[in-house]
Design a protein that fits this description.
Order of helices and strands: HHHEHEHEHEHEHEE
Number of strands: 7
Oligomer: single chain
Largest sheet: 7 strands, mixed
Strand order of the largest sheet: 3-2-1-4-5-7-6
Distance between the termini: 43 Å
Shape: globular
Strand content: 15-25%
Radius of gyration: 17 Å
């Protein structure tokens, strides 16, 4: 094989651009994405990541989903696209601006109030109010330092056969750089190591967007 040719299945910028176009966003999603650019905190999920979240929600027949970090409502809109029509999404965020943007996104998309609960608070504050084993999916879309120490509690929320996702671990390629020691990268390493070493989980890292860590809980 020529040294100038990518390996079979290897990604490139053209492939990433195609993946972005393939995951078509609704006008409400596009408006939500535009709003979040002016906000601080975590960036919203990229279109291909959102599409995977929708597929996972549909595959698990998700009725109850928890989203850690609202990301301006993008993750919520994608998840609701894949969830059952009677499903309820619980999204929590400790950033009032992000949560306000998520409320606007859901309102513009005409999501019924009965289908989404938006809670202001950190994982440490809200987790004790949620039911262990009562959720089909737990999706972490916020900064890893905000939930890394609460990972055991988040995993406890997921039912057997359910799914945990964490968005953003490949951002900037720092997790693979052994010299990177910043707090966010350290948090990502702790999260990925904990999930990989847990025998009750079947994990994978998807190199789409800024990276998506996916794990299914098995008996």
């Amino acid at each position: 094989m020529s040294a100038q040719q990518p390996p079979p299945g290897g990604g490139n910028e053209l492939g990433a651009a195609y993946a972005d176009r393939f995951a078509a966003e609704s006008p409400e999603m596009q408006a939500a994405r535009h709003r979040t650019h002016a906000l601080s905190g975590s960036q919203p999920v990229e279109p291909p990541v959102g599409a995977v979240l929708a597929v996972l929600a549909a595959t698990t027949g998700a009725r109850s989903v928890v989203s850690i970090g609202s990301g301006g409502g993008l993750a919520a809109l994608w998840l609701l696209r894949g969830m059952r029509p009677d499903g309820v999404l619980t999204a929590l965020d400790g950033d009032p601006e992000q949560l306000r943007a998520a409320r606007t996104a859901l309102a513009e998309a005409r999501v019924p109030a009965s289908r989404a609960r938006l809670i202001f608070g950190t994982p440490g504050e809200v987790l004790p109010r949620l039911s262990p084993g009562g959720y089909d999916m737990v999706c972490c879309a916020g900064p890893p330092r905000e939930y890394a120490e609460h990972l055991p509690g988040l995993l406890a929320l997921v039912r057997v056969g359910g799914t945990l996702t964490c968005h953003g671990l490949l951002e900037g390629g720092r997790i693979a750089d052994r010299t990177a020691r910043d707090p966010q990268t350290v948090a990502w390493r702790e999260i990925s190591r904990t999930i990989r070493d847990d025998d009750s989980l079947l994990p994978a890292v998807l190199p789409i967007g800024s990276g998506l860590l996916v794990a299914t809980k098995r008996a």
